[in-house]
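Damage-inducible protein DinB (Xanthomonas theicola), 211 aa
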Amino acid sequence: MLASQFAFKAWANAEPLQALAQIEAAAYPAQRQRAMRLLNHTYVVDRIFAAHLDGGAHAFAASNTPETPALEALHAAVAQSDRWYAEYIARLDATALQQSLAFRFTDGDAGSMTCEEMLFHVLAHGAYHRGNIAMLLSECAVEQPRELFTRFLHAREPERRGAARRLPRRLAQRRRGARRRLPANATANYCGGVRTGSGTLHRSMCPAGRL
């Protein structure tokens, strides 16, 4: 599962970088700079934890750099970092994942996490800030990337859609109906949708347009 999650991370990282190139810098200088700083911060944290995982040292004194790199340079650096994580995970085993690693945060405090915990932190931290960047893109009249694990899986493996088409018609209809209906005691919110009195789920707020 870690391998697919880091493959998703690499895929999801590419879209905000491409979207940033569409921002009119003269019209939205503050938003563009903030988005660039967030992307660079995410990259720096990725590299700091890569050093912790690899048992080496890093050269960062803080969780961001004083200067903001150019978009092209940042794009290349992020892609290289994502490749490093993919290669690192490929050589891990279950024992290594549970190994506890001592380290120091950039503020000097001591810390200790297992390899697995560090990897999940890197995943969660990146996803959190990609959400921040998506909001900034909206302020700049640039479409937000549709960062969905379902979208990633079906883009990477188009044959998954063929499997759904092979379902017996009655079963496919039953599944579609189940997605559109909620039991009377269901919660009002699900994936951004709102349940009406009849139990029908409005799906327009779901970024995927589906459940």
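Residues 186-211 have pLDDT under 50 and may be disordered. The two ends are 22 Å apart (CA to CA). ok done for today
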